[in-house]
Amino acid sequence: MTDYRAVFVEELTRVAPDIDPSTVGDGDHIQDDLALDSMDVLNLVAALHARLGVDIPERDYPEIATPARAAAYLAARAG
Amino acid sequence: MTDRTTDPWAEARANLSGWKGGLNIAHEALDAHVAAGHGGDLALRWLGRDGARRDFTYADLTAEAARFANVLAAHGLGKGDSVFAMAGRVPELYAAALGTLKAGMVFTPLFSAFGPEPVRTRMEIGRAAVLVTTEAIYRRKIADWRHEIDSLKLVLILGEEAPEGCVALAPAMRAAAPGFETVATAPEDPALIHFTSGTTGKPKGAVHVHEAVVYHAFSGRAALGLEPGVTYWCTADPGWVTGTSYGIISPLVNRATMLVDEAEFDLERWYSIVQDEKVQVWYSAPTAIRMMMRAGAEAAKPYDFSSLTFLASVGEPLNPEAVIWSEVVFGQPFHDNWWQTETGGIMIANRPGQEVRPGSMGKPLPGVEVGIVEREGGTLKVLGPGAVGELALRPGWPSMMRAYLNEPARYAKCFVDGWYLSGDLATRDVAGYVWFVGRADDLIKTSGHLIGPFEVESALIEHDAVAEAGVIGIPDETAGEVVKAYVTLNPGFAPSEALERDIRGHARKKLGPAVAPREVVFRKTLPKTRSGKIMRRLLKARELGLPEGDISTLETDET
Lengths: 79, 559
Prior knowledge:
The structure holds 2 protein chains of 2 kinds. Chain A is mainly alpha-helical. Chain A has a single domain, classed as Non-ribosomal Peptide Synthetase Peptidyl Carrier Protein, Chain A (Orthogonal Bundle), CATH 1.10.1200. Chain A contains 3 helices and no strands. The longest helix of chain A has 15 residues. Chain B is α/β, with parallel strands linked by helices. Chain B is built from 17 helices and 30 strands. In chain B, the strands form 7 sheets. Chain B has a 9-stranded mixed sheet with strand order 2-1-11-10-12-13-14-15-16. In chain B, strands 17, 18, 19, 21, 22 and 23 form a 6-stranded antiparallel sheet that branches. In chain B, helix 2 packs across helix 4 and helix 3 crosses helix 7. Chain B is globular. The termini of chain B are far apart. At the A-B interface, helix 2 of A face helix 11 and helix 16 of B.
């Protein structure tokens, strides 16, 4: 059973290594709270695709806006 | 007196009301409209991130600006003092910009995604007397060194509460009177300072004066089609020059209604805003347009874009595919235009009603003289159609920068033989359309922002492991270019994925995500000249598989 939250946070902190993974909250918004910019978001989408084979279309970006939402979304799409 | 027969902007000048024998941007943007009976017109509609919505008429915004000016005055600040602002797109930021100008003080916006180092450097160079920011930004990026900025007298924090040593803006605004007589400013008095990056050395503060409003009024009409009552959405952040010249001043001076969206780019949100708010004129940037393209025409299908009358783009060249795609999807192509922090306003544009040549930045605006030039010793040679050279402009338009703050030598270097040199390489076709070719220097254009490699390299070598750093821009289909760093390591450090992440993390903390490198690679040595200068040009040529050009000055090669 894949821990999608952990995978998400791992890729998130690879894109933005200034973030300490232990401080990331389930409800933290990746742009508003964690200060990713739009290029970071594109890089995160590409990293998730490479790692999980999940294609995240532009209109679904709000679904990965927080670790909690992303975990649910990735589980549904990858599973 | 200005000669009406030779002044190309005489009409724009005559349409301004003037103030106390001089000129003041805030007066033209606000007070003059209220005095003319347009106080009830909608000036600003703010869309909050969470669905909130606030409307400000010209009278409302004038009162907010007046309150802000009164807050500044109450703290003993006066004409010429420097006010810095660093916040997201919230109404208070607009009140602060306009209130600062009303009070005869000088406004400098900073991009809220900057890290602490770019902020500090700019506040030091600009001798900031006031900073307007949020509590979160203050605590994360500023509190640690705030007391080392000896010019800083007042820190205003948005909202109801403020940390120690700062003043909460909301209660201060409530307590302030909604009337303030705009300070008399002369056309040549400084109004705005926008920072721009240099290839070497510190960022430069481009000084703009109140007379710039003549060109903001003119170019908003000529290049964007702004007119009274038009619903206009400039998606640029006021932290950059576009978000101030065309995100605050030009639309207000032209009595348009401006939309301000607090949120970052979000495809469906953006399409909904254009549809629901019936946006007529839309000014955006290639990075955003290419993100829309990635989502495909299908994603745009459910929306009604029939309100749109004119679309424009700025920041970096808009590729022909994006121009053509936008015409299919929106019924109107995005019209590319070109200008810089230094020019203060749009110089070259695909204008309303003119034929668009996809991939071209358009033609010079009326009154603007453009040359494609080549340096020949101390003089310039003007090149003919089809030749590639540096894009140059004849100085004299009203919004031209008047100085780089405290750097007369760097300012003087911009002018040769009666031309202003832009640093961009371009070519002009026989019909007069100008086409961007590249940068003449090492500056990096990413997501419409100009980044100086020196500032990035300086932050990188502050990391314990990094001995030397060379920073270049590499092509990226969405951002135009992205920042990439080449580093050598100090003894005792070895390349590893963990170290790469640590260095990038360090750079992001210092510089913020917009400026920090997206990729760091390790080298044993970097290519250098005999004088020890890292040859960024060579790093870039190799990265792109291009000819290496003249390498006679190469002393130590890359390994």
